[in-house]
Amino acid sequence: MGAKHVFGEVPVLPVVVPLGGAVLVVALWHLHRQRMLSASRAAVALALGVYAAGIVANTVFPIYLDKPSSPTRWTQFLNLMPGGGYELADAAMNVCVFVPLGVLLSLAAPRWPWWRVLAAAAAVSLFIELTQYVTANLLAGGHIADVNDLASNVVGAGAGLLLLAALSRVPIGARLLARFRWCEPQRTHQSTRSGSPALPWVSPEALGSSQGRGRTESTDCQSCAWSRDCRPRHERRRRSLPCRQRRARGRT
């Protein structure tokens, strides 16, 4: 009887370890393909893999393949009443569990607006609740689907998003986070006269009279939504711009 119970339970590690490894490989491949692979960004990819494995291990398991038949209704494992019988300790735990997800999503997708990060976190939480509902009815899972868990998880992701946004407002924190964010400043240069050098990260308005001489240059710095890591380069370019304009006038 004991051996049957042991072999009837689905082991956790053979499922979650390959899952975490797959998430890590896909994330590293994406970083390599976008030419953004670095040690700090690889650490974020590793954190994503570990987090995915941990979430599945703690929210889906245990499950059993030898679940005995019972007349239990499916509605027994579903709670759609907000606040109904929901303890404060459970709410705090669910909030804390999803704080890392808000941070990791903001680092891995820094150009996403806040509502998209929350929507992604809500989708992950909804998938977990649906999985718990199915496994509770079919595989004797030890969890139920609860709408309060969904709300607490979204609040936790929002807390992680706000924490990262507050840290990015501190100069030291912004420089540190820039190492972990999956984005690079992108440059675009346009010139109507061949041979004329473009000034990177300088707005067309700052070019002044250079546009009147038949040369138009437009640049764009697409940096992170929460990061100001390229601002010092902006300022250095703007300070050196008048000297370049004077040299350009002297050559004409």
UniProtKB/TrEMBL annotation:
Ranges for region Disordered: 188-252
Biased composition (Polar residues): 208-225
Top-level lineage group: Bacteria
Coiled-coil segments on the chain, per record: none
Pfam family, one: VanZ
Listed transmembrane segments: 12-31, 43-65, 85-107, 114-134, 154-172
Keywords: Membrane, Transmembrane, Transmembrane helix
Record keyword Membrane present: yes
InterPro entries on file: Teicoplanin_resist-assoc, VanZ-like
Domain VanZ-like residue range list: 52-165
Biased composition (Basic residues): 231-252
Name of the molecule in the record: Glycopeptide antibiotics resistance protein
